[in-house]
Specification:
- The complex is a heterotetramer of chains A (262), B (589), C (208) and D (104).
- Chain B has 589 residues and is mostly helical.
- Chain B is built from 16 helices and 2 strands.
- Chain B has a single domain, classed as Cytochrome c oxidase-like, subunit I domain (Cytochrome C Oxidase, Chain A), CATH 1.20.210.
- Chain B has a two-stranded antiparallel sheet.
- Chain B is globular.
- The N and C termini of chain B lie far apart (48 Å).
- Chain C is mainly alpha-helical and 208 residues long.
- The chains are: A alpha+beta (262), B mainly alpha (589), C mainly alpha (208), D mainly alpha (104).
- At the C-D interface, α2, α3 and α6 of C face α1, α2, α3, α4 and α5 of D.
- The structure holds heme-A (HEA) (2 copies), dinuclear copper ion (CUA) and copper (II) ion.
């Protein structure tokens, strides 16, 4: 019985690790300046935990394999008692924690704790059940004020603007997909009109909840031209699964073209 | 304060059926009642997870009879997205609260703890009875949400505001259903608070002569630590739920910010903060997950030595691990909120203790491994589940290592990676703890033996099955598969559907194998061979009395404890193990 | 410290390990209840503080008159605490009637407190304060937090009054012992202590 | 049925004196309030006084002074610890202030 258990555990461990090593299912190719940092952190963690995973499962298997009942046998005790193991765990795991935290907090800070580049492109993001809307300030570079009571999904006034009295609002460009120039820092202001939503682009390696009542800042720089999916990752109602949009990364000139045509 | 005077806590054996089996004050009956409640709950949760899995594998396949059960939720037997979310919410709520808090903690704790410390009953038998019936009421309230309005809530077991706080406008099930959810959980908190209070007092005050704290079995230690955590954690969830109910019914706006707009109308909330709910919920929520696993720690640490026929490596160390995990569990709740819009600085503040908590966990694992080393292992179902526990807990815990780092959580949060993580530690590790405990204590609880052959089959199939179900979820998470999705329509998710199909089939398989357990359980309970007093040659007090124990546990005897709990494989002893109560002198190794 | 500990497990016989705290289980139970209840209050007060810190233009509703009212309430509650202690002393000297009398006085004081409390509420409700409304046009969270925090405390007061009554009556009839008077006293002191925090945090911090 | 706490207690006289002390603290609190400090200056002082008040009541009225030190520490440590932990909410509340959607 013990041998069987050992074999099963080893097989399970190897198969599980195999799919990881073979990258059968893996993170999509990164497209943002901060992604390499995150992926580095990710691989570092994967190596450590992978090693621990295999080693501990194998150790378990080995011990089980060698431990069977026998009238004559006396049970062996772990040489040196528990404390060396305690020390081992504290040192091994402790060191790794230190390094990971040290590197990781830099990465984290780069994404969430540094102010956006001053000349980055401003985009205002409004999330709602179950869609994203994006707003560019237009030529005057100013956003019109938002009036919740004026919000009408029917006539596409997702931001509750009133162009009559509000000059800044008149030239605001409102679109359904987030279009940004490549290699240019973009700074988003996320706000939601109803539930908590979330802004998630796997390729950017960025996720940020959009909390009603707050203006949550988020900034990134896309480095690869293409079209990527923006999905909502915070349960926001029955349409949660269908709430998505696209991130269009264009070369600067094409982007300017696009902005004119809006 | 009309509690019975605890110092005269032994009450006469009841006679009437009601007092004997329904409103009983006997901790053994209450323990069994809790266990049966957990069984009903887990059965329900299992069926729900089946429905969920089928839907995730085959989005618009009709499920027979579903339309009958949920006329609005499943027109033409095809599950609607909102029904999916409702089932998911109920699945999680039932499993976390009514299975994982009741079975390992309330059920086994109630039954075994007083006997293990050598008491005739709990310190406050009346509170104990109330604790169960309150919990039972909470369960009924939760279940009733299936039958009211437009069905159960769909806000997930975390019920994030404002989705959970603005009422019916938020979507189907968010009307009466969500209110019932909040009420149910509030009631549940009261029940568990009573229970924790009872456990702590019993452990401290009702220990029989010689049962010093150092001689308490680790299972009792685990239940003790767990109840301390519970006493402080549920005390926070209770007001949180009350505030949620107020937000929904009395028009307060604790969690409702200014200017919520749902279908073009501005809602009357103002000044609240959705993050406040998340803080209050997770302040309870993280300790809760350790409430779920610590009894497992204790059970493994008690059962494993009994079958390894040797002392646990580092008895005191294990106590230390459990206590420090208990402490740390209050410093880490923010790791669920890394990307929630919380102050990014706090994220770092929460990340460090979260990573540190893996150290005591690692030590615990190493202690178990060290116990298995060179053991004369007796391979019974119980011991197999102990070994399985070690394996799955390692797997599940290590994925926590990723999530604990904000810089990785920005990618992995709310993906199936998280789902995989907590199913491994909670749905499997904790469950294995329950299974080990069941097979170990069944003879004591019901006076009959369980069938080993069926038990072993159940173990092997479950062990293989759950890895097939939940290991692939890690891969889904790596590919960025978002959780709580009723369908996978995004271009980058469609290629993953085959993997989902595989998971579904595995889940159906695992679920089916659970029926082996159910059958074994009920068959043995009534037909199984009579159990001897000490079938496992175990040493703790519950094995020094008859199976099942008499009403006052020890037939009027006042036991005197002479030894620690794990004297197995003792050289020079009469029969290689020494009961805690046996007066025989042995050199402690 | 040690001599006393031995004595209390008489009923269950010395067949027990003695409790590390050397107090009757009932008392330990009440202490634990107080602990978790204190955490509950802590959570609610934190919620209040959280919302208040996060709100720029908080209104301070309390004119001098209501502060004075609050001070009177505080004094009454503090006195009632001492009344309970008097009851306990009496009980220890086995003066059952005297003890009941003091418990009665406590109940009376507690009732006055509750009445003043409610009158304050009614006044504010007349001013137009609601769980969801702020007559001055400021944030509605003001009234909401006020009513919820004080309401929670009021519930505890009422519960305490009932407990006191029950204990008084049953003790009078000789059904209960000293330790019941002591434990109900503990609970009453706890309610009092909670008020010691509500008074500054809810009233004084919101004085005009 | 008696314990340490039952045996010797301060007695009514000292209860009375302590009561006066508590009144004094309340008076100080009120006096401070009407100095119209900024909230973030006032609150700490009020809380300190409240804690003082509470500790008097706990030690003498609730007789914790006459219980086992073990009990005092278990209760004290666990409560204070939990409260401090809850304080982790606050960096967030501050941020709320700045991220609030003012025009909403
Ligand atoms: C029983 C329940 C349980 C347990 C024990 C744990 C344990 C841990 N959990 Fe988990 N967790 C949950 C239940 C649990 N969790 C649930 C339910 C959720 C999701 C809630 C929701 O959103 O719905 C969650 C979510 C969750 C998150 C949030 C993810 C997200 O939403 O973005 C995080 C982040 O830090 C986390 C971390 C951890 C960590 C670090 C541990 C650690 O305690 C793990 C410690 C264990 C180990 C580290 C393994 C030990 C073994 C070894 C290391 C081998 C050593 C061998 C050698 C050295 C040879 N968990
Ligand atoms: C204890 C907790 C627990 C348990 C046991 C399970 C069991 C299972 N869960 Fe569950 N699940 C959760 C807790 C649990 N789950 C939580 C908290 C969520 C999050 C919900 C949310 O997002 O809000 C979730 C969500 C969740 C999802 C993700 C939904 C989504 O995000 O879209 C999925 C998808 O496949 C899933 C599947 C399963 C399956 C197939 C099983 C089972 O089929 C696995 C097989 C079952 C067992 C191995 C246990 C058998 C036990 C017994 C037979 C009895 C034991 C004896 C007693 C209890 C007395 N669960
Ligand atoms: Cu929006 Cu989910
Ligand atoms: Cu957690």
């Amino acid at each position: 019985m013990g041998k069987l258990f050992a074999i099963v555990v080893v097989i399970i461990a190897l198969v599980s690790a195999g799919f990881i090593v073979a990258h059968v299912w893996w993170l999509p190719t990164p497209i943002s300046t901060i992604a390499p940092g995150i992926d580095g952190q990710f691989n570092e963690t994967m190596w450590f935990t992978g090693a621990l995973f295999l080693s501990s499962q194998f150790v378990l298997a080995f011990f089980v394999w060698t431990s069977r009942e026998g009238k004559d046998r006396k049970s062996k005790y772990w040489p040196g008692g528990p404390w060396p193991l305690v020390g081992f765990a504290i040192v091994v795991v402790g060191m790794e924690i230190l390094t990971l935290t040290f590197v990781g907090s830099k990465v984290w800070a780069a994404v969430y704790m540094t102010p956006p580049d001053p000349d980055s492109m401003q985009v205002d993001v409004a999330a709602e059940q179950f869609a994203f809307n994006f707003r560019y300030p237009g030529p005057d570079g100013k956003f019109g004020t938002i009036h919740p009571e004026k919000i009408r999904d029917g006539n596409g006034n997702f931001f509750g603007l009133d162009p009559e009295n509000d000059v800044a609002a008149r030239d605001d460009v409102i679109v359904g997909t987030l279009t940004v120039p490549v290699n240019k820092p973009v700074s988003l202001t996320l706000h939601s009109k109803d539930m908590i939503h979330s802004f998630y682009v796997p390729e950017l390696r960025i996720q940020q909840d959009i909390v009603p009542g707050l203006n949550v800042p988020l900034h990134f720089t896309a480095t690869k031209v293409g079209s990527y999916e923006i999905v909502c990752t915070q349960l926001c109602g029955l349409g949660h699964y269908s709430m998505r949009s696209f991130l269009q990364v264009l070369p600067q000139d094409q982007f300017d073209q696009w902005l004119k045509t809006q | 304060m009309s509690t019975p005077d605890p110092t005269i806590h032994q009450h006469a054996a009841p006679t009437g059926f009601i007092r004997k089996h329904v409103f009983s004050l006997d901790h053994k009956v209450i323990g069994r009642q809790y266990y049966d409640l957990a069984l009903v709950a887990v059965f329900l949760g299992l069926l729900l997870s089946w429905l969920m899995r089928i839907h995730l594998g085959w989005m618009n396949a009709p499920i027979p009879l579903l339309g009958k059960l949920f006329p609005s939720g499943a027109p033409g037997n095809v599950m609607t997205p909102d029904l999916y979310l409702s089932l998911m919410t109920m699945h999680a709520t039932i499993m976390v609260f009514f299975v994982l808090t009741t079975a390992p903690f309330a059920a086994f704790g109630n039954y075994v703890l007083p006997i293990q410390v050598g008491a005739e009953d709990m310190a406050f038998p009346h509170f104990n009875m109330m604790s169960f019936w309150v919990t039972f009421l909470a369960f009924l309230v939760l279940i009733s949400s299936f039958f009211v309005g437009d069905g159960p809530p769909l806000a997930g077991w975390t019920s994030y505001a404002p989705l959970s706080s603005v009422g019916a406008v938020a979507g189907p099930g968010q009307g009466t259903g969500q209110t019932l959810w909040a009420v149910s959980i509030a009631i549940f908190c009261i029940g568990q608070l009573l229970g924790s209070l009872n456990f702590i007092t019993t452990t401290l005050d009702l220990r029989t002569k010689g049962m010093s704290l150092a001689r308490l079995p680790l299972s009792t230690w685990a239940w003790f630590v767990t109840s301390v955590i519970g006493l402080l954690a549920f005390a926070v969830l209770l007001p949180a739920c009350v505030l949620l109910i107020l937000d929904r019914t009395a028009g307060t706006s604790f969690f409702g910010p200014t200017g919520l707009v749902v279908n073009d109308t501005v809602l009357p909330y103002s000044g609240g903060s959705p993050l406040l709910w998340q803080h209050l919920f997770w302040f309870f929520g993280h300790p809760e997950v350790y409430i779920a696993i610590l009894p497992g720690f204790g059970i493994i640490s008690t059962v494993l030595p009994a079958f390894a026929r040797k002392r646990l490596l580092g008895h005191q160390v294990m106590i230390g691990c459990m206590v420090s995990i208990g402490f740390l569990s209050y410093m880490v709740w923010g790791h669920h909120m890394f990307v929630s819009g919380m102050n990014p600085f706090s994220a770092l503040m929460f990340s460090v203790p979260t990573l540190i908590i893996t150290i005591p966990a690692t030590i615990a694992v190493l202690m178990w491994l060290g116990t298995v080393y060179g053991a004369r292992m007796r391979y019974t179902t119980a011991s197999l589940f102990c070994l399985g526990f070690i394996s799955v807990f390692i797997t599940g815990g290590l994925s926590g290592f990723f999530l604990a780092q904000p810089s990785l959580d920005t990618y992995l949060h709310a993906t199936y990676f998280v789902v995989a993580h907590f199913h491994f530690v909670m749905a499997i590790a904790a469950m294995f703890g329950i299974f080990a405990g069941t097979h170990f204590w069944f003879p004591k609880m019901y006076g009959r033996m369980m069938n080993e052959t069926l038990g072993k089959w159940h173990f092997w199939l479950t062990f293989l099955g759950v890895y097939c179900v939940f290991m692939p979820m890690h891969y889904l998470g790596l590919a960025g598969n978002v959780r709580r999705y009723a369908a996978f329509t995004d271009n980058y998710l469609v290629p993953l559907i085959p993997l989902h199909k595989f998971i579904t089939m595995a889940a159906l398989f695992v679920g089916a194998t659970q029926f082996i357990f159910f059958f074994n359980f009920f068959w043995s309970r009534f037909r199984g061979p009579k159990a001897p007093d000490n079938p496992w040659d175990a040493t703790t007090l519950e094995w020094s009395t008859t199976s099942p124990p008499p009403f006052d546990n020890f037939g009027g005897r006042h036991l005197v404890v002479h030894h620690g709990p794990e004297l197995y494989g003792v050289e020079g002893a009469a029969n290689d193990y020494v009961m805690q109560v046996s007066p025989e002198q042995v050199d402690a190794r | 410290m040690d001599d006393s500990g031995m004595t209390f497990h008489m009923e269950t016989g010395s067949a027990m390990e003695e409790s590390p705290y050397r107090i009757p289980s009932l008392k330990l139970g009440v202490w634990l209840f107080i602990l978790s209840d204190a955490v509950t209050f802590g959570a609610v007060l934190y919620a209040y503080a959280y919302l208040r810190v996060g709100t720029a233009d908080w209104t301070r509703p309390f004119a001098t008159s209501s502060i004075i009212n609050a001070i009177i309430m505080t004094v009454i509650l503090l006195v009632s605490s001492v009344a309970v202690l008097a009851a306990l002393e009496a009980a220890r000297e086995q003066h059952r009637s005297k003890c009941t009398l003091w418990l009665g006085i406590t109940v009376l004081l507690g009732t006055i407190f509750a009445v003043l409390h409610l009158s304050e509420w009614i006044r504010m409700i007349h001013e137009g304060w609601r769980l969801f409304q702020n007559p001055t046009g400021g944030p509605v969270t003001v009234g909401m937090t006020f009513f919820c925090v004080t309401g929670l405390h009021l519930i505890h007061i009422v519960g305490g009054l009932i407990a006191l009554l029950v204990v008084a009556l049953r003790y009078q009839r000789g059904r209960l012992q000293v330790n019941h008077v002591e434990t109900v006293g503990l609970y009453w002191h706890f309610v009092d202590i909670v008020w010691m925090f509500i008074f500054p945090m809810i009233y004084l911090m919101n004085a005009k | 049925m008696d314990t340490k706490s039952v045996n010797h207690t301060p007695g009514m006289k000292s209860y009375g004196l302590l009561l006066l002390g508590l009144f004094a603290i309340v008076a100080i609190e009120v006096a401070l309030t009407y100095q119209h400090f900024a909230p973030d200056v006032l609150l700490p002082w009020l809380l300190i006084l409240a804690v003082l008040e509470a500790s008097i009541a706990i030690t003498y009225y609730m007789h914790l002074r006459y219980e086992q030190p073990k009990l005092v520490w278990s209760l004290f440590v666990s409560f204070v610890f939990v409260m401090i932990m809850m304080g982790h909410m606050f960096p967030d509340a501050m941020r709320l202030l700045h991220l609030r959607v003012i025009h909403w």
